[in-house]
Structure formats: C-alpha cells, structure tokens
Specification:
The protein is an alpha+beta fold. The chain has helices at residues 2-25, 53-78, and strands at residues 31-36, 43-48. The model has no long low-confidence stretch (mean pLDDT 78).
Length: 79
Amino acid sequence: MKKVVGGIITIIGIVMAAWGIHVYVFAKEATSILIGGADGPTSVFIAGKVGNGFGLGTIFVGIILVVAGVVIFIKSKKK
C-alpha cells in the first residue's frame, strides 16, 4: 500500500513541477500601459501582473512531492 501512495505522490509531484515550469517559462503575462495627460499632469498606469511567483512556487512544491514520494517508495521497499 505504501508503494502505491509513494508512486501517486511522485506522479503528482512530477505533474506539478512540469506545469510550474510551463507557467514560469512559456506563459506570457498580459500587461497594459495607459498614458494620460490631456488636461493635466501626465500619469502612467500599468495594469498587469508583475513577477511570476506562482510558477516558482509550483515548481518548488512539485519537487518536494517528488522527493517525498521517492522516499516513501524506497522505505516501503526495504521492509
């Protein structure tokens, strides 16, 4: 039973890490820049997401799950 749990955790970790890499490397964030100043001082408004911490967090959690799954699988094999 522990082998199955270790395998499932490892697979989930691999999928999460791969998805995080995809989000971090390939997904481009949309950003809009609005410049206004017809009747007063010029203002610059930037609308969009700055940074990409979600992808890095997903990669980190995925790697932790892979390591945990492998450890569970190896420990269950020794018993």
